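Hi V.,

You were right to ask for the full record rather than a summary. Here it is.
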Amino acid sequence: MDLQISGRTAIVMGASSGLGLGIAHALARAGVHVGLLSRDPSRLEAAAASLRAVSSATISCIVADLASQDAVHAAISTIKDEVGVPDILIGNGGGPPPSSATVFDAALWEAQARAMLLPVMTMTDAFLPNMRANGFGRLIMVSSTSVVEPIPGLVLSNALRAALANWGRTLAREVARDGVTVNTLMPGRFDTARVQKLNQSRANTEGGSAEDVRRQDLETIPAGRYGTPEEFGAIAAFLASPLASYVTGALIPVDGGLLHAH
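Predicted structure:
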């Protein structure tokens, strides 16, 4: 399928591995010029090399720790200078540590809110005016099924991801007539380092092994398996295309049927 986005420009946050890298691959294969953001220079260069091996599109690397607002603003300046103003912005990042709702740490909440909310909002504020003026823009946020079904032991993720998703749904209504869509993808269980880390943390708490946790997960997923970053990237690339121009303000599960209700 021709996604009609060849020659467009995208910025992918958290692009050095996992779902972010899966999205970057799908966009690059479709001919999109991709700017990769990550705080890890070596992993970022490795990710860029993997994209260049499968695409002739321009691949750029921007090193930034997006937990710092100063770093976010510096990254925006670098993007404008080296990549240009993007047509597509992928809001993606690592998740917060496991935590209980019965324990409140104000400093931790403030730090995680800065890390999970402000980078996407600040990037959007910088690039949205050009998207609206050009009559085309795509903001796609990578979230979690916890937006609609909170996951036990992940209260920070549950609350902050829901906040960002509802910000996005509000924004979608305000910019839809300008040709800009805003959607949130809700991944379930995928074969990524983040899921492996969470499985190990759960195993440490409950006893047993990470593989035991994985087997328990598979029993709850109708598809009977974890997803792959490549599958996830394909969905994001479609949403980034003109073919998905009538999809906006949506919370879209990509979870093998995991959610019980949506």
